């Protein structure tokens, strides 16, 4: 027993010694960094306002169903449960589709509720206008589409929105069988 304990002790000491870097810090796959090292200045709060155009039929379709939910005979078919759509929707300055294009919402949404119109939204908002050109914000959240105002989280971003956090507020502007136009107000903290 004493021999086994000493072998374990020697193994532990060697393992610990071999995992120490020359500067005396433990080797690891991660390091603590400071925001200043990457040139980050003071964090700011930005407000973005635009309109999202989701067209599922008619001209200029921007969203297609890629998975169909249960059959129409199913008790959950009224909510659309199980339907999944892939989208590449235009984002414009105003509610008119002909207003200035400021970006695109690309990703997917799924009908995730069996009893009500509840969507799982997984979208990247890619901006192509002004100082945010080339930057993105990512959304992952629940959208209760029949509520007057819905709130979904900003889960990250890229470009000028690196390390972003905040929320999207969505409000339906118009809705018909072909198109939904949704007004978005986005409040995002970023560097």
From TrEMBL:
GO terms for biological process: phenylpropanoid biosynthetic process. InterPro entries: Allene_oxi_cyc_Dirigent, Dirigent. Residues 1-24 form the signal peptide. One of its GO terms (cellular component) is apoplast. It is found in: Secreted, Extracellular space, Apoplast. Keywords: Apoplast, Secreted, Signal. Transmembrane segments: none annotated. It comes from the Eukaryota. Its main location: secreted. Homodimer. Dirigent proteins impart stereoselectivity on the phenoxy radical-coupling reaction, yielding optically active lignans from two molecules of coniferyl alcohol in the biosynthesis of lignans, flavonolignans, and alkaloids and thus plays a central role in plant secondary metabolism. Belongs to the plant dirigent protein family. This is Dirigent protein. It comes from Tetracentron sinense. The lineage of its organism: Eukaryota, Viridiplantae, Streptophyta, Embryophyta, Tracheophyta.
